[in-house]
């Protein structure tokens, strides 16, 4: 039987492997094994070295990303029959994931050491998850997209439950796991319909097939399920219900990781699917994403207004920010909006990463002293920790979208994309987004007011002692938020439509 | 070097120099309060010196042209450039912002609000200065927007942290109003950009192509900008944040708010809304005129009802900005000249009034008009200064205020571009009545606070004053007075005399400013006219 199956297959062709293009992934794989092995032989008192090692692995993987960018991508570096592509789009996102990974390592070090958690294992999982994200940026095939998604998700389920004696952390892990697995099922189901009706797992083939033939009912179901599957990952309303509980319960560095990197990876998967495979089904996904985006930003904001816990507030704010990121994707097939939409989503992800990570880093630093996650614990922060207060102000102002800090330019680009699309649905969405910007200002201001204008709640004005790695993380995030806000040209030149090879058909 | 001979660097240096001071202050410990204040004053002084140098270098023969012009690539993807330049319209306001910040910084030397923390306070003030100066030199819509928004947070914190009793309410109101205005303004900017052909955000491009947009579309876009700028001015009915913000803000905040921030709105009308959307401007001019005059009367009546001196001055701001907007709404050379003059004059006079109010509050710990009296006996110099400013504010000829109000009223007699003469002449009459009301409330204020016998409550050096001042014992260490009530101090003289001198100089010789502004204004009105078929 096996022989007859083998006989049906075509001859084995050895795929071309471009080792340079694969170098970031290879460095990560080697690093993962190193961390795993060294951890076995390291005595308990020296476990702190694992964090440093993991950081070096992230930076090591960054080097080939830079060299690849310098060398350029003509001709496009594509492997495995165009199913794994390293184009400029992939490179900028790989750089993002590795940088975020590095900042998360910095944030994790003291948390893990002081909490007495397993350090080596944690960094292995973190590196595996980042490897999944790095692969996601290059995946151009249903199978590799799915594999990358699972590779980045499964370690994250475990990391969310890392504080294993804390019921909240367990709740976080279980909720994230159950809904994540459910989402994977939904996604896989949708993908199977797409594969079944088009006969290929390669995204560009699916795209060609969908654009040449009328969309069938099964394909509609496939498209919808794929978007729903990614909707869970990017915590779009109404698929966001896991996010606040998971964010609140998980250790803070993991929360930061989930709200930035994991969300970004979900968006990357969604973009790749939309631009390469589903673009012709605009009648299906445009209204669907329109509704998702409007709901996500509005519901996220309204729920954020009611929060008294700072982590939950940031959780809902990140849901709402997801709506803004999603917004331009609702118009990619209208007018000339495809190019600005891609740019808008990518730069939003880049800048949002700095500001949101920074906000979490400040929360970590402050909660080390106050031991509380309530917004009121930030009272009077300016009087005893002015630098922390200033940095938090910077990050929250950026998240609000106040120039000249970071996210304003991403928001502007998103608005501009909608106006570029120029149909009335886009205008309505722009108005919804404008109203939401003002609403979001109200709850970000709540935190600012607490820090600047309220008295210190317990009168304890001993200064905050912040460990070096967190300072480093804060420095990176603050520099990114300020520099990208003032000179957005640094990132705006990335992510042109032509950087994403094969977008909207060949 | 070409750049040097054109002095292209001058505006950039003048605008961003305060940030250098902010950096120095950041790395100086907050406990070194004197050093912090010194750095701030030196920085603001250096900025003002750059401003003076700009005044010297400015070619007054060609004040209609943009000078010190720079056009560098900034965000090429969204077609926005770092375009800056200065012409006769911007120059007075640009320089005023520098001087006001400098003098306010000097004033802070002795008059830090009770909350303390001069480090954060002065850093915010310097950042504010960057935003204000930048708004007046920006020649690109996105750049303008960034500078315009840069002032938002520092002012919010200044009011909210160092303000009076209701500071949090007032600051939030200020923030949300302005944010709402900005959101609409940004949408209008983007709409204008796309309608004009989406080639550039530069002012020049938008003026040329914006005028070609369909009339109906222009009216809609103008509506968005109108709300954005009108909140900032503030015009009736968007003014309700102003009395709260002014009353609660610390003296320094009030002065900067009155002297510069409000002008960002009126400047926006003159520089952006009018020339880029001429037909929209013409359609909206009657509405602006009517709201302006309502503002004049409403502000004056509001003043008559106030029991708090600072709140009264705040309401008088609403009235004065009404005159400015009336001048703008006539779309004439004379009206816009008057408006620009009025902006500077109001900045000087009302800024000065807020200074006096702050110092009165500092001494008496109250601004309740009922409780104040006999200032001329107790503090003759302060009393005279208050009287002088009140006279200037009510538009006494010979002082700066007159040249803002009178030509504005005059210009309404014959509005430009076929605007209804009946309407504007009616407005003119009502506005003229407003000046009478202004004389009424200001003289009444002066009579109640400065004349008569001093309130016995503040006469004795006994218990009440001391128990009240216990909260502010910090100040005692500085001025070394056993009681609170003393006449104008040296620091106050230094901070105030430039204002007082300027009020007289511009009052006696208004041509000094008119001749700088007029060529630029004439050109602007011509552009507006060219866009109206």
Q: What is the strand and helix layout of this fold?
A:
The complex is a heterodimer of chains A (about 500) and B (about 525).
Chain A lengths: L1 H7 L10 H23 L6 H24 L5 E3 L4 E3 L1 H28 L3 H20 L3 H19 L6 H32 L4 H10 L4 H17 L8 H8 L2 H27 L3 H24 L4 H17 L11 H33 L10 H4 L1 H15 L6 H15 L2 H30 L14 H19 L2 H4 L14
Antiparallel strand pairs in A: 1-2
Chain B lengths: L1 H4 L3 H18 L6 H25 L9 E9 L4 E7 L3 H19 L9 H20 L3 H10 L1 H11 L4 H29 L7 H8 L4 H18 L8 H8 L2 H26 L1 H27 L4 H21 L3 H32 L10 H4 L1 H14 L6 H12 L9 H30 L5 H4 L3 H7 L3 H7 L10 H19 L2 H21 L2
Antiparallel strand pairs in B: 1-2
Helix pairs in contact in B: 2-3, 2-5, 3-4, 3-5, 4-5, 4-12, 4-23, 5-6, 5-7, 7-8, 8-10, 8-11, 10-12, 10-13, 11-12, 11-14, 12-13, 12-14, 12-15, 12-24, 13-14, 13-19, 14-15, 14-18, 14-19, 15-17, 15-18, 15-23, 15-24, 17-19, 18-19, 18-23
Distance between the termini of chain A: 39 Å
Low-confidence stretches of chain A: none
| Computed Rg of chain A | 22 Å
Oligomer: heterodimer
SSE order of chain A, one letter for each helix or strand: HHHEEHHHHHHHHHHHHHHHHH
List the strand order in the largest sheet of chain B.
Answer: 1-2
- Content-based structural category of chain A: mainly alpha
Tally of DSSP β-strands of chain A: 2
Main pleated-sheet profile of chain B: 2 strands, antiparallel
Q: What percentage of residues of chain B falls in helices of 4 or more residues?
A: over 70%
Poorly predicted ranges of chain B:
1-5, 461-482
């Amino acid at each position: 039987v096996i022989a007859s199956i083998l006989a049906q297959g075509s001859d084995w062709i050895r795929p071309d492997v471009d080792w340079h293009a694969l170098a970031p992934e290879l460095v990560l794989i080697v690093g993962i094994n190193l961390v795993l092995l060294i951890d076995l032989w390291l005595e308990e008192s020296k476990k702190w070295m694992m964090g440093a090692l993991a950081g070096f692995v992230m930076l090591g993987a960054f080097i080939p990303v830079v060299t690849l960018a310098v060398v350029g991508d003509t001709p496009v570096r594509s492997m495995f029959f165009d199913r794994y592509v390293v184009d400029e789009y992939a490179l900028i996102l790989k750089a993002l994931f590795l940088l975020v990974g590095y900042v998360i390592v910095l944030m994790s070090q003291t948390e893990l050491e002081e909490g007495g958690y397993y350090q080596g294992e944690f960094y292995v999982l973190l590196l595996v998850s980042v490897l999944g994200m790095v692969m996601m940026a290059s995946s151009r095939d249903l199978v590799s997209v799915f594999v990358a998604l699972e590779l980045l998700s499964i370690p994250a389920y475990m990391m969310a439950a890392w504080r294993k004696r804390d019921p909240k952390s367990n709740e976080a892990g279980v909720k994230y796991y159950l809904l994540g697995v459910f989402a994977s099922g939904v996604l896989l189901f949708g993908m199977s319909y797409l594969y079944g009706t088009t006969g290929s797992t390669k995204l560009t083939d699916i795209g060609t097939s969908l654009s040449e033939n009328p969309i069938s009912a099964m394909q509609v179901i496939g498209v919808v399920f794929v978007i729903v599957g990614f909707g869970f990952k990017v915590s779009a309303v109404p698929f966001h219900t896991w996010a606040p509980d998971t964010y609140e319960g998980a250790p803070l560095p993991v929360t930061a990781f989930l709200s930035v990197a994991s969300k970004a990876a979900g968006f990357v998967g969604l973009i790749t699917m939309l631009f390469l495979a589903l673009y012709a089904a605009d009648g299906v996904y445009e209204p669907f994403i329109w509704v998702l985006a409007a709901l996500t930003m509005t519901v996220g904001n309204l729920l954020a207004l009611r929060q008294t816990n700072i982590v939950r507030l940031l959780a809902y704010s990140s849901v709402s920010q997801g709506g803004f990121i999603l917004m331009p994707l609702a118009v990619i097939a209208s007018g000339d909006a495809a190019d600005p939409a891609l740019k808008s989503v990518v730069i939003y992800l880049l800048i949002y990463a700095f500001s949101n990570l920074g906000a979490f880093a400040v929360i970590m630093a402050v909660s080390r002293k106050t031991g509380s996650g309530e917004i009121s614990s930030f009272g009077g922060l300016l009087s005893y920790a002015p630098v922390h207060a200033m940095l938090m102000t910077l990050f929250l102002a950026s998240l609000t979208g106040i120039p000249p800090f970071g996210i304003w330019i991403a928001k502007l680009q998103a608005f501009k994309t909608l106006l570029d699309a120029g149909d009335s649905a886009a205008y309505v969405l722009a108005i919804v987004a404008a109203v939401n910007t003002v609403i979001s200002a109200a709850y970000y201001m709540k935190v600012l007011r607490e820090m600047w204008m309220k008295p210190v709640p317990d009168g304890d004005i001993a200064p905050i002692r912040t460990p070096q790695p967190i300072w480093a993380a804060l420095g990176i995030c603050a520099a990114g938020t300020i520099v990208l806000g003032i000179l957005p040209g640094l990132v705006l030149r990335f992510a042109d439509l032509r950087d994403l090879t094969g977008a909207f058909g060949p | 070097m070409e750049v040097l001979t054109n002095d292209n660097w001058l505006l950039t240096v003048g605008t961003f120099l305060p940030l250098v001071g902010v950096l120095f202050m950041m790395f100086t410990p907050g406990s070194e309060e004197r050093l912090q204040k010194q750095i701030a004053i030196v920085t603001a002084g250096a900025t003002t010196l750059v401003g003076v140098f700009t005044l010297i270098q400015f070619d007054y023969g060609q004040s209609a042209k943009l000078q010190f012009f720079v056009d560098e690539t900034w965000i090429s993807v969204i077609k926005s450039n770092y375009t800056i330049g200065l012409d006769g319209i911007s120059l007075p306001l640009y320089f005023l912002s520098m001087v006001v910040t400098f003098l306010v910084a000097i004033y802070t030397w002795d008059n830090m609000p009770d909350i303390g923390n001069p480090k954060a306070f002065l850093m915010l003030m310097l950042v504010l200065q960057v935003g204000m100066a930048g708004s007046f030199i920006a020649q690109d819509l996105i750049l303008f927007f960034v500078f315009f928004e840069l002032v938002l947070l520092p002012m919010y914190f200044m009011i909210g942290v160092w303000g009076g009793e209701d500071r949090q309410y007032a600051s939030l109101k200020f923030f949300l109003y302005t944010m709402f205005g900005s959101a609409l303004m940004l949408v209008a900017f983007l709409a204008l950009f796309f309608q004009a052909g989406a080639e550039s955000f530069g002012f020049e491009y938008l003026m040329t192509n914006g005028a070609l947009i369909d009339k109906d579309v222009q009216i809609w876009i103008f509506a968005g900008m109108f709300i954005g700028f009108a909140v900032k001015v503030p015009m009736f009915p968007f003014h309700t944040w102003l009395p709260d913000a002014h009353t609660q803000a610390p003296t320094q905040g009030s002065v900067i708010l009155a002297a510069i921030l409000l002008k960002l709105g009126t400047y926006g009308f003159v520089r952006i809304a009018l020339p880029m959307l001429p037909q929209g401007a013409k359609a909206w001019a009657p509405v602006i005129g009517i709201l302006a005059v309502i503002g004049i009367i409403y502000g004056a009546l509001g003043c008559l009802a106030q029991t708090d001196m600072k709140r009264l001055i705040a309401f008088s701001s609403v009235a004065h900005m009404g005159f400015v907007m009336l001048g703008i709404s006539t779309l004439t050379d004379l009206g816009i000249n008057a408006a620009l003059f009025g902006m500077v004059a109001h900045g000087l006079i009302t800024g000065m009034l807020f200074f006096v109010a702050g110092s009165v509050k500092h001494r008496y710990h109250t601004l309740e008009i009922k409780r104040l009296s006999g200032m001329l006996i107790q503090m003759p110099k302060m009393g005279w200064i208050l009287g002088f400013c009140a006279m200037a504010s009510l538009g006494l000829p010979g002082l700066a205020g007159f040249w803002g109000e009178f030509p504005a009223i005059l210009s309404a007699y014959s509005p430009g571009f076929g605007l209804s003469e009946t309407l504007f002449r009616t407005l003119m009459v009502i506005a003229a009545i407003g000046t009478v009301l202004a004389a009424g409330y200001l003289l009444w204020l002066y009579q109640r606070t400065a004349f008569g016998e001093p309130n016995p409550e503040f006469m004795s050096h006994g218990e009440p004053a001391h128990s009240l001042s216990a909260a502010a014992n910090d100040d005692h260490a500085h001025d070394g007075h056993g009681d609170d009530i003393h006449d104008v101090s040296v620091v106050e003289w230094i901070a105030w005399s430039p204002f007082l001198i300027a009020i007289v100089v511009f009052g006696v010789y208004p041509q000094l400013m008119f001749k700088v502004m007029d060529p630029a204004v004439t050109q602007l009105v011509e552009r507006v006219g060219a866009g109206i078929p």
